[in-house]
Design goal:
Largest sheet of chain A: 5 strands, antiparallel
CATH topology of chain A: Beta-Lactamase
Membrane topology (chain A): Peripheral membrane protein
Helix content of chain B: 55-70%
Distance between the termini of chain B: 78 Å
Strand order of the largest sheet of chain A: 2-1-5-4-3
Helix content of chain A: 40-55%
Radius of gyration of chain A: 18 Å
Oligomer: heterodimer
Family (chain A): Belongs to the adaptor complexes small subunit family.
Subcellular location (chain A): Cytoplasmic vesicle, Clathrin-coated vesicle membrane; Golgi apparatus
Structural class of chain A: alpha+beta
InterPro entries (chain A): AP1_sigma, AP_complex_ssu, AP_mu_sigma_su, Clathrin_sm-chain_CS, Longin-like_dom_sf
Number of helices of chain A: 6
Number of strands of chain B: 2
Keywords (chain A): Cytoplasmic vesicle, Golgi apparatus, Membrane, Protein transport, Transport
CATH architecture of chain A: 2-Layer Sandwich
Number of strands of chain A: 7
């Protein structure tokens, strides 16, 4: 089971955090601090696995971003690497050659994509096409709602209520 | 009233604005954030859901990226999810799944909204609710929403169904009773043709089976079908994990499954799949030689790859295999050793583990030499990893693999000198431990300790202070083996000891005291001897010659009076060169020279001691002060005596002599007791004397202490640690000495006291028994006094165990370089029977897990008669029933349909039930029945 997912930039900035096991806010900050210390200092030609507090962290660097997933001791490291790659490919398809800025400005969308890929710390959808379709459908739902809400008459109606 | 709201809505900062703002105002990030938070606090209170949700989104962003607390906004998040607009809902759910936890107070409020969304016609709303539930589900939520999830598990929409299946794990985990509702449908989903659903179900079973595999044995046929039928690697990896958990429980299952796994291993191209197969074989199919060999071949392929990931995993696979199939490690020895110098610290660590796994009695010296050389060249972190693993491997099972303790002790010394070494504490423990356990190594230990003490570099390294304190203690405690007590004393009193923390400094002082005392003691004994010989020869001219003679005897002579002294090694009496084994002849003569103290040298020592301790007697640290004063007090007593002798060189006054030797004798008594290892359960083994009446009102303590077992067929005597003698040492001395009365006053006082107050002493005759760890030795030895038993079969204790181990180990060891023969037999290592290690407290299984597995077993066995009891260990009956079953299968398929409803093959009674149980069963999908029935032919 995947315990949590972290996206950290090369400079140590957090870009996304998703916790599948309960961690308090304090623990979260500590985990992020500890792990970015461990992972960012590792050289480029080293293996992608780090043992950490009895768990394992699988990470992979794409451009300036480190994608990290923390898994149990007996989970399959290579499988998780594939999940990370899967996630990146879907992001890439969704944003159109994704870069760090896309994730910075659309942080919630990155979450939505992740939610379609993982549930309860397990992979739920291995088809990129399906994920893309689902995300697009939800986006259109959101858009229609937004259009309604942002129409000026609506705002005025709200405000003068 | 309306205007701020309008302003908020029209001019609210969007998430983009905040992100841009943060990016452009790096310097004042915190002030910017606090400003934004202020805005959010205002905005989030509006009634306009659009404004509210935007505020919430901003807050979620700040929470997840900048770790800003958002627990105060939990109620607003709930407001957002109750919005009809999907966009608001989505923002609300994101906020909830990021920030809610079990202790969030408003969590109960979302129960209704979740139910509403789970029942929604919009599949995306359903999906949002399911995602949320999977993340934050509490016991209450899971209980309330079980039926909704159950319904969703059979919906036609694959998208929703797979999520519902994914959520089930959380449901079971939190609310085990959900099993009764959902489990059947979950099992049915194993039949699903949709790969995503199958993947989700297998994922759930994988998690469940890793917690309590036994409950899922009945489902083995289903998993087997997937294992041979599926081509989806995501699914197969999970199924392999399930089998890795199930196979050890049921040998016939393992037999059945091993072939398909090997098939996958041969055919698959995906590395993740290959590795999963390797891991499965290495953990759970270790008995299947061919499978293990195949896995080893694949591991070898991994190891030879350039990809560091595969290399790491290859090494990891080897370390899983190592405990049962060391040959696989030895085959890849070249790669493993090579990996020690890999640039990746993780790979280095793995290979270090493997190298340590290869250590055996025959190659420990070689390997440690290689590793210490590596450690010298490594960086600080890895250097200490190496040292740590050497230390922990060598001390396993009371130094099981160490044969040559002299070597090991000098290795400890060598390790302390490695500049990066930070293992002072561990080395400290081992130095003292070895000193107490292994009598034969003490001379070497003192030599090594001495060298460590005079090494000027070590005092400056705070990590090594603990080690130094051990060295000081050892040198003080076993000073009789020291070649040069004078130098030792100087080392202990060197001014740089002020660098040490006070706790360690006190150890130094105490040791210095012991050394000084030893010197004085030797001197006085030597003096007495001399007078004796002088009077014998009645010639005063031969003083110089006889003093040489006396000094050779001196270290022994001082102990000889107290024949019972366990510290008095018999070797030293018989063959002084053994004592100084490490030094050879040169040092033996040095030993003689040094220990022949002249008055001048003693006075010099005493003065040195006085000089160094005087300033400390006013120390603010009470320990230091106390010890300094103790030592000074002793010096005061002795000095007067010795000085007076010095004045009256020729005129030997009897009374003065008596005075000196009395002091020395008394003090000698203080130090004579040898320290042995003490079992941590020693206290428990003391039997409560019959006469002792415990207070009645303490009786209820028994409930608390009741689980502390008093299993002492063999108790451990604290007072007389017995060091079994190695072969070749004659016991004649002891026999002679055995009957002699304890001569010192203190001991006789003690005996007297004991005689008078027998009640308060431990019953010595009954209980002072010692069990050596060696099975060949007599189980218990009754010790009347402090003597080792005279007629103890020395060959028996000389570790027959070890020689046998040696044979097997040398047979096993495939390492080319090994030391074929040992110059000397392994010295005896004192072991306590069982109290050496801290007792391992068994982990209690989680209550929840119990509930869960109980519920699942109930479900799986629900069709069988209530009276039956599961009896998993009854293998023979299973087999028998299985055969019976086979016959029935062939003959009467109608009746069998009923039987197939009881899927638990572990349960004999479920088989039995087929004769009475049919007709009871509910009809199920024919598919299912085929599934179970097929299993009938399975076992």
């Amino acid at each position: 089971m995947i315990q949590f997912v972290l996206l950290i930039s090369r400079q140590g900035k957090v870009r996304l955090t998703k916790w599948y096991s309960p961690y308090t806010q304090k623990e979260r900050s500590k985990v992020i601090r500890e792990l970015s210390g461990v992972i960012l200092t590792r050289g480029p030609k080293l293996c992608n696995f780090v043992e950490w507090r009895g768990l394992k962290v699988v990470y992979k660097r794409y451009a300036s971003l480190y994608f990290c997933m923390c898994i149990d001791q007996d989970d399959n490291e290579l499988e998780v690497l594939e999940i990370i790659h899967h996630f990146v490919e879907i992001l890439d398809r969704y944003f159109g050659s994704v870069c760090e800025l896309d994730l910075i400005f659309n942080f919630h969308k990155a979450y939505y994509v992740l939610d379609e890929i993982l549930i309860a710390g397990e992979l739920q959808e291995s088809s990129k096409k399906t994920v893309a379709r689902l995300i697009a459908a939800q986006d259109s739902l959101v858009e229609t709602a937004k259009e309604q809400a942002s129409s000026i008459s609506n705002i005025i109606a709200q405000a003068t209520k | 009233m309306a205007s701020p709201s309008l302003m908020d809505s029209l001019f609210q900062r969007s998430l983009d604005d905040i992100i841009k703002g943060l990016r452009h105002q790096q310097s004042t990030e915190s002030t910017f954030i606090s400003k934004v938070i202020e805005e959010i606090r205002r905005e989030i209170k509006t009634t306009d859901l659009q404004t509210k949700s935007t505020a919430l989104q901003k807050l979620t962003y700040l929470n997840s990226i900048h770790s800003i607390d958002m627990s105060w906004a939990s109620f607003h998040a709930i407001e957002c999810i109750s919005s009809p607009a999907f966009a608001h809902k989505k923002i609300g759910y994101l906020a909830i799944s990021q920030s809610f936890n079990e202790s969030t107070p408003v969590i109960l409020l979302i129960s209704n909204q979740l139910r509403k969304d789970l029942n929604s016609g919009n599949e995306f709303e359903v999906s949002l609710a399911l995602d949320c539930l999977s993340r934050i589900g509490t016991v209450d939520l899971c209980r309330d929403l079980t039926s909704e999830v159950f319904t969703l598990m059979s919906t036609s929409k694959v998208f929703v169904r797979k999520k519902a299946v994914g959520v089930v794990f959380r449901l079971f985990e939190k609310y085990p009773d959900a099993v009764r509702v959902c489990f059947k449908r979950l099992v049915e989903s194993l039949e699903s043709s949709d790969s995503q659903i199958l993947s989700a179900v297998v994922g759930v079973f994988c998690e469940l089976a890793s917690k309590d595999p036994r409950s899922y044995l009945p489902l083995a046929p289903e998993f087997y079908r997937i294992l041979v039928g599926s081509r989806n690697n995501w699914v197969l990896i999970k199924v392999l994990k399930i089998f890795a958990n199930l196979a050890p429980l049921e040998p016939r299952l393992a037999k059945r499954v091993v072939e398909p796994i090997c098939d996958h291993l041969r055919k698959t191209g995906a590395k993740s799949m290959v590795f999963e197969c390797i891991r499965t074989v290495a953990t759970s199919f270790t008995e299947y030689e061919s499978a293990v060999k195949l896995a080893a071949v694949k591991i070898r392929e991994f190891l030879l790859e350039d990809d560091p990931n595969l290399k790491y995993l290859g090494l990891h696979g080897l370390s899983i295999m190592a405990p049962k199939h060391l040959w696989a490690v030895l085959e890849n020895k070249d790669v493993v050793i090579q990996s020690l110098s890999d640039e990746d610290p993780n790979i280095k660590l793995e290979s270090l583990c493997l190298v340590m796994a290869m250590v055996s009695e025959s190659n420990v010296v070689e390997i440690c030499r290689v590793l210490v050389n590596y450690a010298l060249k490594s960086d600080l972190e890895f250097c200490n990893e190496i040292l740590g693993s050497i230390l922990s491997t060598c001390c396993q099972n009371v130094y099981e693999i160490i044969t040559d303790f002299d070597w090991y002790v000098s290795l400890l010394g060598e390790m302390s000198r490695i500049p990066h070494c930070q293992k002072g504490e561990e080395i400290e423990n081992q130095l003292i431990d070895i000193g107490m356990r292994v009598k034969d190594v003490r001379p070497e230990l003192v030599r090594v300790g001495h060298h460590l003490l005079i090494d000027p570099a070590l005092l400056g390294n705070p990590y090594l202070h603990r080690m130094l304190s051990a060295a000081a203690w050892v040198c003080g405690e076993y000073v009789e083996f020291s070649g040069n007590p004078v130098e030792l004393l100087e080392a202990l009193l060197q001014p740089r000891t002020s660098l040490l923390p006070s706790s360690i400094r006190t150890v130094y002082m105490q040791s210095a005291f012991k050394v000084l005392f030893f010197c004085v003691c030797t001197y006085i004994e030597q003096k007495e001897d001399m007078t004796l010989e002088v009077s014998d020869l009645t010639s005063k001219g031969e003083c110089s010659e006889s003093s040489d003679l006396a000094s050779a005897k001196a270290p022994v002579a001082c102990d000889q009076d107290e024949g019972f002294n366990p510290r008095n090694s018999s070797q030293s009496y018989e063959d002084p060169s053994v004592v100084n084994g490490g030094h050879g002849h040169v040092s033996t003569s040095a030993f003689m020279e040094e220990t022949s103290f002249t008055r001048e040298s003693i006075v010099k020592l005493v003065n040195l001691m006085e000089l160094s301790l005087c300033p400390l007697s006013g120390s603010y640290d009470v320990e230091i002060q106390e010890r300094a004063r103790n030592a000074l007090g002793f010096i005061e007593l002795v000095k007067r005596d010795i000085l007076s002798r010095l004045l009256r060189k020729e005129a030997n006054s009897e009374s003065e002599d008596v005075c000196a030797s009395t002091i020395v004798e008394w003090l000698h008594d203080a130090f004579y007791e040898d320290l042995g290892p003490v079992s941590i359960t020693a206290q428990e083994r003391v039997l409560i004397p019959d006469e002792l009446v415990l207070k009645e009102n303490l009786a209820d303590l028994e409930a608390i202490c009741g689980n502390v077992e008093l299993t002492s067929s063999c108790s451990f005597s604290l007072r007389s640690p017995y060091y079994g003698e190695s072969a070749g040492v004659s016991f004649s001395n002891h026999q002679v000495e055995e009957d002699s009365e304890p001569s010192t006053e203190a001991t006789s006082l003690l005996t007297e006291h004991r005689r008078r107050h027998e009640l308060y002493y431990l019953p010595s005759e009954k209980n002072e028994t010692i069990t050596t760890a060696n099975d060949y030795a007599p189980a218990t030895i009754t010790i009347a006094n402090d003597y080792p038993p005279a007629n103890y079969p020395s060959s028996g204790i000389n570790t027959n165990d070890d020689s046998q181990d040696l044979v097997t180990l040398t047979n096993q060891s495939l390492l080319p370089k090994r030391k074929p023969n040992y110059a000397k037999p392994r010295p005896v290592v004192v072991k306590l029977d069982e109290g050496d290690a801290a007792p391992v407290t068994a982990k209690k299984p989680e209550v929840k897990g119990d509930l869960l597995s109980g519920a699942i077993r109930d479900i799986l066995n629900e069709a069988k008669p209530a009276s039956s009891q599961s009896n998993p260990s009854d293998k023979s009956s299973i087999k028998k029933k299985g055969k019976e079953k086979l016959n029935v299968d062939l003959s009467d398929s109608k009746e069998d349909l009923a039987v197939r409803e009881q899927p638990n093959p572990e349960n004999p009674s479920s088989r039995r039930s087929k004769h009475r149980g049919h007709g009871k069963e509910k009809s199920k999908k024919s598919q299912r029945e085929e599934g179970w029935g097929w299993k009938g032919r399975w076992w």
